TrEMBL record:
Residues annotated as domain SH3: 195-265
Protein name as it appears in the record: MAGUK p55 scaffold protein 3
Residue ranges constituting the Guanylate kinase-like domain according to the UniProt record: 332-514
Record-annotated PDZ domain positions: 106-187
Organism per entry: Lates calcarifer
Statement: the UniProt record of this protein carries the keyword Transferase: no
Domain L27 stretches: 6-61
Family: Belongs to the MAGUK family.
Gene encoding the protein: MPP3
Pfam families named among the record's database cross-references: Guanylate_kin, L27, PDZ, SH3_2
Length: 530
């Protein structure tokens, strides 16, 4: 086998490689192809030119400005004509010093039916068309060639200097396939957007096409209450960029920031109160299984946590969330059932607990009524005096309490803690008003809204009437009850359970409880931060 010397060049190395090729049965065609390539005379010439250039590089030669004769003598054996040498001599005489002009960049992007992923604005001082935003994941962002602050001059050869921003946006949106931009790069290009790890639960519905304030309706991101949004940038205090979790679209969209949404709400309220008349909206009272088990006025006005309350309709914007999974050394999460009229959630709760009393339990309520002969203290109820009950209510020890047939009833915080201390999952059914009191890092409640499926019927009627005075059927009452709870407390609900019948509802609830113990769920960030 030939041995390469220390001074062997690339050409000699390839020549030896060619001589060593031995095709076998499995790769015969590949070996023949490689041998033909390495044996090509033009490749040999290129390799020798490469070696000559490397020699000149090591010698640090000075540029030849007026004559290429010496260089030609070395390369004539490898070139078929000398025209390139005369070109060299001509070009060498020219002056290529940079001129003091604006640098222009031609950018060619490929987009299909998707938006370009950038918004523009008119600079008030200069009148220039400036790139205002780059949408994360869009065509412009993926290219890495367009940046915030760049000045746009042409789109597919059409000047945009004197065009209005809406005309330019239409020109960009109508361009399909390849799109060529002529831009003046920003003096100081901003860093590429860094994808953040901030997740928000939307507490309201948003439709960009109905929002006249959005800078670009095409770039807006529609979402519904309860959607989880990944906010990729909050650089703009008015419009954030976000993606909707589970969405296949990689491009981020614009959503109103928390501050902007709140300020818009307050502005709307100021306008409403400045009107010369007032609108009075009356609704049906929320009816539940335990209609007598109501929160006291004092409890409804109590504080439910630090900062803005997500249950306060004045601040229904976003709630920062994170993924949470219960650990083996942690107490089980609290499961809270709320129900509209006809849901019969107490029956559903008792049935699930009876099936597996070792894993699930109910918080034993307190009462001032006398104990019956068959009842045991701490099993059916905690029996206390009226004085003791009033003192506990005054000290906010109940999550809710009320009066029924001149007796007091209430569910205490300690009753929930007692169940969790036994490493059991506590299931409580409460009036929706109690949710604010339970939404704490200690309990990490998982809220299930149970509502019965209400079939359409016009026959059965009751004495109930609507706000307008018309008679309402019982089924209409059920439907109205569900609508009202959803409007007031739907943003606090983790799961809606449509109850077809007791058996199917019980099976669905059981499945939810089992997943709570082994899967991760979105919870407010404040519940897991230490």
């Amino acid at each position: 086998m030939p041995v390469l010397t220390a001074g062997a060049g690339l050409h000699e190395t390839l020549a030896l490689l060619t001589s060593q090729l031995r095709p076998d049965a499995n790769h015969k065609e590949d070996m023949v192809f490689l041998k033909d390539v390495f044996s090509e005379r033009s490749l040999g010439y290129l390799m020798k030119i490469h070696e000559k250039l490397r020699q000149y590089e090591r010698q640090s030669p000075t540029p030849v400005l007026h004559s290429a004769s010496s260089l030609a003598e070395d390369h004539v054996p490898f070139m078929s004509h000398q025209a390139v040498l005369s070109v060299h001599d001509t070009v060498a005489q020219k002056n290529f010093d940079p001129l003091e002009e604006e640098s222009v960049k031609i950018v060619r992007l490929v987009k299909n039916k998707e938006p370009l992923g950038a918004t523009i604005r008119r600079d008030e001082a200069t009148g220039a068309v400036i790139v205002a935003r780059i949408m994360r994941g869009g065509a412009a962002d993926r290219s890495g060639l367009v940046h915030v602050g760049d000045e746009l001059r042409e789109v597919n050869g059409v000047s945009v200097i004197h065009k209005r921003p809406d005309e330019i946006s239409q020109l960009l949106s109508q361009s399909q396939g390849s799109i060529t931009l002529k831009i003046i790069p920003a003096i100081k290009e901003e860093d590429r957007l860094r994808e953040s790890k901030v997740y928000m639960r939307a507490l309201f519905d948003y439709i960009p096409l109905e929002d006249k304030a959005t800078p670009c309706q095409e770039a807006g991101l529609p979402f519904k209450r309860g959607d989880i949004l990944q906010v990729v940038t909050q650089d703009d205090p008015t419009w954030w960029q976000a993606k909707r979790m589970g969405d296949s679209n990689l491009r981020a969209g614009l959503i109103p920031s928390k501050q902007f949404q709140e300020s818009s709400w307050h502005l709307t309220q100021d306008l409403l109160f400045s009107l010369p008349f007032f609108l009075c909206i009356s609704g049906l009272a929320v009816a539940g299984l335990r209609r007598s088990f109501r929160l006291s006025r004092k409890d409804r006005q109590g504080s439910s946590g630090e900062g803005s309350d997500p249950g306060d309709p004045d601040f229904l914007t976003y709630e920062e969330v994170t993924r949470y999974q219960q650990r083996s050394n942690e107490r089980p999460r609290l499961v809270v059932l709320i129900g509209s009229l006809g849901a019969r959630i107490n029956e559903l709760k008792q049935r699930v607990i009876a099936e597996n009393p070792h894993r699930y339990a109910v918080a034993v309520p307190h009462t001032t009524r006398p104990k019956k002969p068959h009842e045991k203290e701490g099993v059916e109820y905690h029996f206390v005096t009226k004085q003791q009950f009033d003192a506990d209510a005054l000290n906010n020890k109940f999550i809710e309490h009320g009066e029924y047939k001149e007796n007091q009833y209430g569910t205490s915080i300690e009753a929930i803690r007692s169940v969790q201390a036994k490493n059991k999952m506590c299931i409580v059914d409460v009036q929706p008003e109690a949710l604010k009191r339970l939404r704490t890092a200690e309990f990490k409640p998982y809220v299930i809204f149970v509502k019965p499926r209400v079939p359409e019927s016009r026959r059965r009627r009751s004495a109930a009437t609507s706000p307008g005075g018309e008679k309402m059927t019982y089924r209409q009452e059920m439907r109205q009850s569900a609508i009202q709870i959803d409007q007031q407390y739907g943003h606090l609900v983790d799961r809606v359970l449509i109850k077809e019948d007791s058996a199917s509802a019980c099976a669905e609830l059981r499945g939810i409880l089992e997943r709570l113990e082994r899967e991760s769920f979105w919870v407010p960030v404040s519940w897991v931060r230490t």
